[in-house]
Amino acid sequence: MLAAIPFPDIPHQILIPLPWGGGLPLRFYALAYLAGLIGGWAMISALMRRPQFWPQGRAPMTPKMVEDLLTAVILGVIIGGRLGYVLFYEPGSFIEHPLDIVKVWEGGMSFHGGFLGVVAAGLWFCRRHGVPALQLADALALVAPLGLFLGRLANFVNAELWGRPTDLPWGVIFPGEAAQTCPGVLPGACARHPSQLYEAGLEGLLLGLVVYLLFRAGALKRPGTITGAFLLGYGLARMFVELFRQADQQFISATDPSGNVLSLGNWGLHMGQLLSLPMVLAGLWLLFRARRARATA
């Protein structure tokens, strides 16, 4: 068998001891969401206490208002993420079983749906509290890579969203269905790209570094710059990693085993790439808009 890394023995959940005995199970995925949301809340609250970073030396809202923002974001992530998964990835299945839509504990969340949910929640929040939308978007974009990094680590721990078969030495033999026979290895030992870790590195660490450097360079004073960089960076990173990620099973067919949802001659786009294209275009437009506004200021 070719060199490969066995999937590490990582528990999917931890048990929190209870005073009356036993334990409360807490899944790693829930911990990742919780840590990302609390970390983002703390970072945005700290930003609102530093008016010197914002246009005209005035923060767009008070630290106290961030608590209301957190509630709106949580609802946007959960509702948008679930509805996005239903509409983008498995509409037929949920048409047959509509009550399954509310079963979020069984898995099935879409980043792009969650993103749209946060956009909707943010616009509602801005309208209600009179907060400049682009400034709020910049604050959210600045902290989003933290949640993305933790979320992709959770995907790896859950052995989900794995990559295509590979014979590279860092290929991982994931348990269950992922270990099915593939070219070049023995049956039951299919090594695959750890695409979740690729995404954690690109969408989380690298993109986080980019927006942080922009922040240190004073980008918050040019509304839309950090948001544009985030959208462009995430869109490009996601489209790149999709080249190594196993296509969603519902899009794979005998006539097109690549899993493309949009064919372009000998090329094609996966659903993740197709949904990321608007983010790339929006990011470019926001960066152009911010640069133009700076030039005319």
Task: Write out key terms for the chains shown.
mainly alpha; 54% helix; two-stranded parallel sheet; two-stranded antiparallel ribbon; 8 helices
Description:
With 297 residues, this protein is mainly alpha-helical. The chain contains eight helices and six strands, in the order E-E-E-H-H-H-H-H-E-H-H-E-E-H. The protein has a domain at 137-250 and 257-297. A hairpin with a 5-residue loop joins strand 2 (13-17) and strand 3. It is globular. The N and C termini lie far apart (63 Å).
Beta-strand content bin: 5-15%
Weakly predicted, low-confidence segments? none
General shape: globular
Please bin the fraction of helical residues: 40-55%
Reported for the largest beta sheet, the result is: 2 strands, parallel
Strand arrangement, major sheet: 1-4
Q: What is the overall number of helices?
A: 8
Helix vs. strand class: mainly alpha
N- to C-terminal distance: 63 Å
Mean pLDDT: 84
In total, how many beta strands? Answer: 6
Order of helices and strands: EEEHHHHHEHHEEH
Radius of gyration: 21 Å
